[in-house]
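name: query_chain
kind: protein
chains: 1
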Amino acid sequence: MQAVAGFDRPIAGFFSSDNTQAWILNCGPECGGVQASVQTLDLHDPANPVAGPATPIPSGATVGFIKGQTMYVAGNPPIGSNTRTGGPTTAATTCGRLTIVDLRSLSTTPVQPVAVIPDGYHTKIDISDDGQLFVGSRTCTNIVPVNTGDEQRGCLAIYNTNNGNLIIPPDNGDVTGLQPIINRTVFYVVEGGELRIYDTTTDKIYTVASINILGNAVDVKLIDF
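structure:
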């Protein structure tokens, strides 16, 4: 095992197709570090990997997903700046952020959050074939409705990567499982111990009722035959 210095609480790594480079996601303050960031790792000489410069992520980084040359990063802003400013109207007093990083201009172009999402510890992120990015967290601020028409909010956000629209579905609970269904506009989500089947063309529960799972569902996977 080769140890490489220069990272700040690294939490995930993504490798290039030829394994000569990796992009490291540094968690930063949420994991006891200093600054969340994306940082390159040069692997041309596997015996002597070299850490490159870090590109700061001002909004926090606990989970990431790469699509092409774009990295989507979710996390919470540092304590003291984690307000709901700029997001949709909500009773939640703190919110997370979704940031988009262009890997082609990494370290040369400052990055800023593009969407205000539920708070909590973000651990789940995946994308559908039609570009709907699902982001889930746990221990978020759940808003439970008291009367008909009241706000309902849980730990799931859906970001449309094609037009920038954001949806926070009216559901409650930790998001512990995400699974896009290939070649279909269907996305499986486990939230609050229940399986939800979303239609990615509407960002709503699929017209066919979700399957009732006995007990608490934890995760969901697509079988590759």
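note: The mean pLDDT is 90.
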